[in-house]
Amino acid sequence: MPGVGGMCQLNLGCSNYANLWSYSFKVQFNNTANYMIVPLSTIAAQNANGKCDLYLQFLDELTQPMSGQIVLGSMFLQQYVNYWQYNYTAGQQ
Question: Is residue 33 part of a domain?
Answer without folding.
Answer: yes
